[in-house]
């Protein structure tokens, strides 16, 4: 950093908040933030339950945590300070909330705000980075990337994705070994439903489990393609006849030609409501009805995004690195930026962290390239493998206790004494 | 072994077969069998797809596999030689199949038969152990325990169970950390459905994830108790109000007071069929309908029983040990026995392998003791923890490749040349 980029704000406190769906490694980012700030002598507050804690002046004093507790965040899944799904409205629509945030920042001498989340959070950080000047308060806002959806713009990949990708590839491989051994007299079709409402990144990662026409997964269903029932059933049938069994990985966001989620178009629960999050049972029923094969289906749901026990080392390292970089950028006086991951080589994989303007990231969505899906629509291409494969490499260290469970840390999360009147977001 | 117990059958080949649902560690048993037999200079054939391969004379020559491939079975899930769900009828009902088996044994000089499975397989091994004498063929039959259901009699626990128990406890812990961090604005109730049609062993293991009224899982639903909707909903509500969120672990075999599986009583698919394997979505719909809470549910299905990446070291060690002991018993001339796990101490946990008569195991089912379920029906007792806790201890070694995936082995599975006419089981 050149001295010219340094801000006058060299004193004050740093506020860190987690936002949106949590991941297996978002706390590694928190560890990166807190360890880097401690090394620079800067106090870190964390907002309890994301931006809501900042609005409510419900702040956590991270200086009350031991160095070993903070280090243990590197291997603890979930959001250690709480997260939230809460999108700030625009400045015009809800100026009061922005003013409140500045008020809270001022009351606790917060000069740096690090917001760890996805597209929406990048937008919030961007808005806050601008409002400080309007309201006459010197605040630097840094977005810190996080999302299992891998849909942030600019960054090559998103911390959180590599681990869910690894979990999904391992699970696909393992369950397929199971099905292969049972297929003669039992299950012939296994359907694994994975997260991904709008983009098939996680479903694509399942493709890393095997390569070649006979290797599982035999069929991947992406939200990028309209579901073609006839083509799907024909492929299932051909696979069972050739291989003896068939593993299907389906993105939760698979839609029919009319644009409806398959999960909603099919099953209704006991009360007649459309069932959500259940494309796997819908596909299974279809396979049973039309082809008569015995099936099993799995929906790991939260298990996939919290599976720190199967995390990727590359992902955990990147999550830590963006946290540390965010502090560097903030203390160097940068504003309205996000530390992003830049890939310099596929093989051997090389990456580095660089700052990118939040304006290029906020509210944008990175789609999976069409070139990642095979022409038949059911698999991933060599280009997809080149991109995905490095992201699941290495096993992130995880200490286990004598009880056979991972040693996950629970922080004290001591509240900072409030100084302002209550505020209801 | 005393020399007096030695059989005259000191030459000949050994046949090993896998039966029923496979596990994360059944191949560790195969490794134990093959390594022990190789050390004693005995050739091992494996039946392809369990007893079906024996009936069809579809045998695999394991001497074609390298020592390192056999060693890799110790960490490879699924059934390396194929398994099947096929129960031999009684001798009276289908004498032809027994005669065929003896014919195959005779054709390949098979003097020892090791059948790796659950209750049904113990029954088959027992029947075969008797028929040899009737048909004038000297064969020693050993049952080798395996089942994630943990329902075999005599043995303290079943190889395969400890690993699914560990996977379930870890997954419950991890997903609960996720839910805890999101609960304020998102999911308040998380429901994890686990295997266990008749007994709640796996559901009980989820209880190891936490202890105390506020720790997840907050509610466990066992097949041992009729589902009490009002009590369940009251407990969910009280937990959400007190803790902020609630993790429920439900055994797939939960039934209502009328004895119907809840999974079948509720959801119907797009074709109007009752959905199987879906107690979690039924419970989720109930929570939504009656309490209005946002929910998520997960059904890991085969992922749980194939999750070698999260296997218990105790379980993997026991799986290997029963395989080795089975060879020792067979070569010592024992017949109609099973190597079972005997617990000599809870803490520190100590176990050993001993032979037990198949007659005491075949077709029996070990229930979970009533003393393992708390009086309110929603949790596990200290006695359950004492029993379960040692079984998930230690992490079984697992080599990963540079590609970030476990190095699972795929055997050559070279067929032995058939010598008999074809037979259709």
Automatic annotation (TrEMBL), chains A, B:
Catalytic site: 149
EC number of this enzyme: 2.7.1.90
Reaction(s) the record says it catalyses: beta-D-fructose 6-phosphate + diphosphate = beta-D-fructose 1,6-bisphosphate + phosphate + H(+)
Pathway per the UniProt entry: Carbohydrate degradation; glycolysis; D-glyceraldehyde 3-phosphate and glycerone phosphate from D-glucose: step 3/4
Residues that bind Mg(2+): 119
Protein origin, superkingdom: Bacteria
Swiss-Prot/TrEMBL site (Important for catalytic activity and substrate specificity) positions: 120
Cellular location(s): Cytoplasm
Protein family membership: Belongs to the phosphofructokinase type A (PFKA) family. PPi-dependent PFK group II subfamily. Clade 'B2' sub-subfamily.
Protein name listed in UniProt: Pyrophosphate--fructose 6-phosphate 1-phosphotransferase
Organism for this UniProt entry: Rhodanobacter fulvus Jip2
Origin organism lineage: Bacteria, Pseudomonadati, Pseudomonadota, Gammaproteobacteria, Lysobacterales
């Amino acid at each position: 950093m050149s001295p010219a980029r340094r801000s006058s704000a060299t004193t004050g406190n740093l506020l860190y908040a987690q936002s949106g769906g949590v991941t297996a490694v978002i706390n590694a980012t928190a560890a990166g933030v807190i360890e880097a700030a401690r090394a620079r002598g800067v106090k870190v507050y964390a907002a309890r339950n994301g931006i809501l804690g900042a609005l409510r002046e419900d702040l956590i004093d991270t200086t009350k945590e031991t160095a070993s507790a903070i280090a243990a965040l590197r291997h603890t899944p979930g959001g250690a300070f709480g997260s939230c799904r809460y999108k700030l409205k625009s400045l015009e629509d809800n100026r009061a909330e922005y003013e409140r945030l500045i008020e809270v920042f001022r009351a606790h001498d917060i000069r740096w705000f690090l917001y760890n989340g996805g597209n929406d959070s990048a937008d919030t950080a961007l808005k806050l980075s601008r409002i400080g000047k309007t309201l006459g308060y010197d605040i630097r806002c840094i977005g810190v990337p996080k999302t299992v959806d891998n849909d942030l713009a600019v960054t090559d990949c998103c911390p959180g994705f590599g681990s869910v990708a690894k979990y999904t590839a391992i699970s696909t491989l393992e369950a397929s070994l199971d099905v292969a051994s049972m297929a003669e007299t039992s299950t012939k079709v296994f359907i694994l439903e994975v997260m991904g409402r709008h983009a098939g990144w996680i479903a694509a990662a399942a493709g890393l489990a095997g390569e070649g026409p006979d290797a599982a997964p035999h069929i991947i269903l992406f939200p990028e393609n309209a579901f073609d029932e006839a083509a799907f059933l024909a492929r299932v049938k051909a696979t069972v006849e050739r291989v003896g069994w068939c593993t299907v990985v389906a993105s939760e966001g698979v839609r029919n030609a009319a644009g409806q989620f398959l999960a909603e178009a099919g099953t209704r629960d006991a009360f007649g409501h459309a069932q959500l999050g259940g494309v796997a049972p819908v596909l299974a029923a279809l396979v049973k009805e039309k082809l008569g094969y015995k099936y099993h289906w799995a929906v790991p749901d939260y298990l996939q995004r919290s599976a720190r026990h199967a995390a990727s080392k590359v992902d955990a390292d990147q999550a830590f690195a963006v946290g540390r970089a965010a502090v560097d950028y903030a203390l160097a006086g940068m504003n309205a930026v996000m530390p992003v991951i830049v890939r310099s080589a596929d093989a051997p994989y090389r990456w580095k962290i660089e700052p990118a303007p939040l304006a290029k990231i906020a509210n944008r969505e990175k789609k999976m390239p069409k070139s990642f899906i095979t022409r038949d629509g059911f698999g991933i291409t060599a280009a997809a493998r080149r991109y995905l494969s490095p992201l699941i490499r290495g096993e992130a260290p995880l200490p286990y206790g004598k009880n056979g469970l991972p040693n996950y840390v629970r922080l004290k999360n001591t509240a900072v004494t409030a100084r302002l009147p209550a505020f209801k977001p």
